[in-house]
Amino acid sequence: MKKILTATLVTLSLAACDNDNHPSPTIIIAPVESHDYLPVPASAFGPALNEQGYYVAEIRDGIYWVTEGVYQAMFITTGEGVIVVDAPPTLGKKLLSAIAEVTEETISHVIYSHSHADHIGAASVFPDTATVIAHEETAKRIERSQNQAIGDPYSFGMFLGGSDVPLPAITFTEEYELTIGNKTLQLINAQDGHAPGNIFINIPEQKVLMVVDIIYPEWTPFGEMAQSENMPAYLHAHELLLNYDFDTLVSGHLGQLGTREDVEKQLAYLRDITDNAATALQTTDFNAIATEYGQDNPWLLFEKYLDSVADTCNEITLDTWAEQLAAADVFTKSHCAKMVESLRID
Ligand SMILES: [Zn+2]
């Protein structure tokens, strides 16, 4: 049955990095017929953007979040300079506008949540004088990505409108406490949740916590378990997160802030996917697929077998979750496939 997206026509002109060297990609969210996919509920969309294409708001006590609807960054006024966390190329110089809108303080510190260019690839827009802080593994990964000598002819973040970013001046392995002016931030190793080097940015006094690419409030995670590298560590990161006494979560994605309930709900969804992937592995008949496709081409056989396992996991999971998380019908199969492979080999 054809279903229609009910979203209002929104054109997000995502001036990538507002960088003269890169074209500005445009993302269009339009009320098009969305094939056979479920409509996204209105509650899953965030606040309206301003004329410049972003939304900025104070969470509490000088802690702000900024979004263009798909990516998020955070900044904090301290009385002695602004601390910024992340620089998605989709926000780019809009981040500078958002900061200038609410404070005259200059940017003194930049924190990278992790090494992925889609979240930090616009960090060159910040002043050279800002001190950059990140996990040691994040620094290593950025250095490797930006090292053209190792054979990658494409520069860091170039397909996202980003460019090379400053290497961190301060790195840590497990925990780093940053006190600037009237704010204290705890930067904590997220133990391989998403990618090695990913961190929790905890602001205990204001009960705000930012962690990127782990939780997707109201939505299913981005495809293939949000590109997480280690499935057990990804699920465990949810439990680690719930150990902190936060009220508001800045997740790095989409147009809304999160809560503890979002973490609990997503963990339940991912645990269901784990169980359903195991059930699918136990019930899919490999021999029947081998009979149909033969064994001469083992890659074809495995492709068909693993696809069938993922299909079964997807169907069982969507029975419960199709209407509980936006776009669950878009990405659950890819989560299932990733979990199936993790159960097989990890
Ligand atoms: Zn990432």
From TrEMBL:
InterPro entries: Metallo-B-lactamas, NDM-1-like, RibonucZ/Hydroxyglut_hydro. Pfam families: Lactamase_B (PF00753). Residues 70-253 form the Metallo-beta-lactamase domain. SMART domains: Lactamase_B. SUPFAM superfamilies: Metallo-hydrolase/oxidoreductase (SSF56281). This is MBL fold metallo-hydrolase.
